Amino acid sequence: MSLLSHFCRRIRLTGPLNVGELMQDVIMDPKHGYYPQAARIGHKGDFITAPELTPVFGEIIGAWSLLYWQQAKLPPNVHFTELGPGRGTLMRDIIDTVGIIGPAFFGKAPKLSASLIEISEQFIAEQEKLLCGNVRNPITPQQIFDNPNYLTRTGLHKAKLKWYSMLDHAPDNKPSLYIMNEFLDALPVNQFQKTEDKGWVEIMVDVEQDIDKLFYTTYKTGRSIKIDQDKDFSDLPVALKLSTRHNQIKL
Questions:
Q1: Once rounded to an integer, what is the mean pLDDT over residues 56-82?
Q2: Predicted TM-score of the model (pTM)
């Protein structure tokens, strides 16, 4: 079943989807989603990020991490949590910088560990190869979604690396530095539009009756729409709600 067929069947069974629900499946569906199956990063890929252009980006974050370590009075351990590690390039440059500069400037380096939040089997393999030198056993989608911690390895500078499918599954190590490079812009969002007669309404996705064709709508929601009345949305054409399992951010 194609992703379009999946959406059409689901909408006909349960009603229109909001934009966030549509985006969630488009980018995260294990069989058809962009990140689990098709994403490519690099000069020949779909997009490129700063760490892929130069190691300076990661080295600066690594140097800043050492400054934080110094200000925290040189605790024995430092933990990194990265959401959406891509190919692992940024984490490699950070760990490498801390492992090299720490002993040079402070006579020692902290024991490093990292939690990598990732659901793409392709990216997991690239991260493991870059950070650990090889891919021990390919990770399957079943393992990713069935096991909170589906991979554990020792990487560069003896860093303890653990992979998780969700941030909720990762331990709350302290001190911990959270890294998200071009991550929030990939999260599903819900869209709202201000109308003259009904005020703020949620934009939904519906399907034509006779053909598998999706279209946007604002009138078939069948849901109550709650907007934060204490915040002025009058100057915004669209209000966005970024939802995670930990909080909600309304812009």
A1: 94
A2: 0.77
